[in-house]
Amino acid sequence: GRARERRPPPPGRHTAAGRKKGRRRSADAPGAPAMDKILEGLVSSSHPLPLKRVIVRRVVESAETPLSQAQCRAMFALSTRLVLQGPDPFQRQVGRQVLEAYGRYHRAEFEAFFNRGLVLGLLQRGYGELSNRDPAILDY
């Protein structure tokens, strides 16, 4: 093969040697993609299932990192939607794993999300297209 020409990184990118010090982006930084959006894009993507599983495992392992209440709520809402309306077993399983992991590490936020109103709403009105009598509601 031909030798590849090395190009400098585009502006805004940093090499290991030229990394700017003290400029880490936090999870709350404007423009930083939210974990729920990343996960949502991943599970519905056409990437191979083994790759999706590896990335989902990383998302689940990252559950112990601090998140804002809004970020936790977004993860709980997405995982609930995946559990109850996921179009395939993989998405429903991912929803359960994420809900369990984030619920374990963010208990106060989970209790605020999974409250009496949510449970009564599921049992009285169902969820989206699911009837309140659908077995998935009770499994959830």
Descriptive account of the structure:
The chain has 140 residues and is an all-alpha fold. It has one domain (35-139). The chain has helices at 35-43, 49-61, 69-85, 89-105, 107-113, 116-125, 135-139. The model is unreliable at 11-29 (pLDDT under 50).
SSE blueprint:
Layout: H1 35-43, H2 49-61, H3 69-85, H4 89-105, H5 107-113, H6 116-125, H7 135-139
Summarize the structure in short.
The chain is an all-alpha fold. It has one domain (35-139). Helices cover 56% and strands 0% of the residues.
Name the shape in a single word.
globular
Q: What ranges have pLDDT less than 50 throughout 5 or more consecutive residues?
A: 11-29
Overall SS class: mainly alpha
Q: In percent terms, what proportion of residues is strand?
A: under 5%
Mean pLDDT: 84
The largest β sheet comes out as: none
Number of strands: 0
N→C terminal distance: 55 Å
Total domains: 1
Helical run tally: 7
- What is the ordering of alpha helices and beta strands? HHHHHHH
Helical percentage: 55-70%
Output the radius of gyration.
19 Å
Q: What are its keywords?
A:
about 140 residues, mainly alpha, about 55% helix, about 0% strand, globular
